[in-house]
């Protein structure tokens, strides 16, 4: 073997091929990065920004489409209400077809506008959709939308919603008939018991205005013992033992004193919650059951006896019982909600107050707009 010949590259000290390969690899990597930039591929940060802006765009369009659909359907339901095929049903169906066509044309136009806007700035498209959503949302806050939304609910809710609307207007009529001066005096008297009622309502997860309405109906905020056995602020009579146990637990006491307004409020809240659960969260039936109590087997037995399913169908069979009790409670509850929201009692018949009051809504029945 020739000893003068190197055994390998390491022995010869020739490392240039490796250096050349390393430099080639680095150059290739740099060229790839430059190539990616030239081809316009999105980096991770840019991809996240694009997803975010697209999400804003779709959110704005979704809000605008949702509110616009409600307004147009509600307006159509009011404009073409009736049973005549040519006068009512056919125009309504044509209106729905027109709405679908208009939505399709809008989406086509938006897609073309979107491409043009993105050539100038990626922020223009989401900004425009957000502005559109804000404009539609601003229109929704107006009182006139309440009427349109009411027609939409009637259109979708059918018989159930029609019954609710009928009873709701009985509540508005009862509120309208109240003597404003007497109602204001009662609201002023209620301030003494406000904290106790708020604590009881919060403890049993009940609308505080509803509890105020029950107290107003029962005692006008003048606690007393009545001839029929009612005691205190909420005129408590016979209540289930489980109700007393719940009130004791929430109050943290071993004995209930019904002449104590705080105890009285907690027992009333527990009782109403009990009957509301028994009536499967039907507000009118829950109030009626609260008023009837265990008499005559309770409201549930009466409804089974006559085959009634809701407040509307049970009313004709309550000739000897206070069937207007829920209406009176809710009319007072409405007064307290107005007082808390507006700082005053609005006259229903003045100006546009009727629509405004309907937008605020009846406590427990709906939240309003």
Automatic annotation (TrEMBL):
Signal peptide: none annotated. SUPFAM superfamilies: Lysozyme-like. It comes from the Bacteria. The chain crosses the membrane at residues 51-77, 89-111, 123-140. Residues 196-296 form the Transglycosylase SLT domain. Keywords: Membrane, Transmembrane, Transmembrane helix. Residues 1-11 have a biased composition (Polar residues). InterPro entries: Lysozyme-like_dom_sf (IPR023346), Transglycosylase_SLT_dom_1 (IPR008258). Pfam families: SLT (PF01464). The keyword Transmembrane helix applies. Residues 1-30 are annotated as: Disordered. This is Transglycosylase SLT domain-containing protein. It comes from Nitrosomonas ureae.
